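User: For my dataset I need records formatted as: sequence, then structure tokens, nothing else. Please produce one.
Assistant:
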Amino acid sequence: MTYSHRNMRVENNCLFLDDSDSGSVVLQHNARPGMRPYIHPLRAPNGKTCLTEDSPWHHPWQHGITTGFHGVNGCDFWYDPGQRAGVPIGRIEPGTPMIIGDNAPSWSIEALWRHADSTLLLVETQTWSLERADNLLRLDLDWRMQAIPHVRFEQQPYGGLFLRMPHRKEQGGSVLNSNGMRGSDCEQQAAAWVDVSMPIEGSKEVGGITIYDHPDNTGHPARWRVDNQLGINPAPCIPGPIELAPGESMDYRYRLILRTGLLNMDQIQEQFEDPAWLSSSS
């Protein structure tokens, strides 16, 4: 089916995108008090196969599609509160999701990032849109982090937008980047995109998601975290620390392509070269 704003609703500080054909929630963007905003579940174009995982045993602080950083003015915004003794954990306070426009599904969420001492450091704005293209779903993100005081993000091997799919070691999975590198060879490497695919437990389908780094993003092509459970992350802080003056922002644009089945490298690259997306700017 084709989704529109009429398929969206906001309840209990969560945004829902419903598939009336399958009777399922295609996408749930959680913004409950005390938790960072995150997307889970997120289903493939068939409206059934769930492509995200929330709080797996190996990384319980990871929630489907989310954002976070280590070392922001000496405070951590990667772990959830209470998960690391002795580490000052910041607090992310999301607002209520807002539906935008009256055509294709589009919405925004604003969140306040507070230091462990309650000082407001950053205002985060996520603006999302979703459209169907044949047997694919395109999920676009405009992401802004605006500093209130001077903010320093430490150099780290990961941080930023993160994707956790439901990987099971015994079922396998694969990672491919825009340079033709595979698996663990993609770790910390620069690439325009990274694709991850895997069999989905409880389904006969292979699910896949590609994350694309927009060419206008600072530092493009991004360098990527690829962990042992096939979590992927275009990480702005891999090359070095980032400094923001008061009122300054860093802005990134990403596209996620969701599917069941496998795409070859040419098919993945074709989605990256969508003129409408390449010509857009935050």
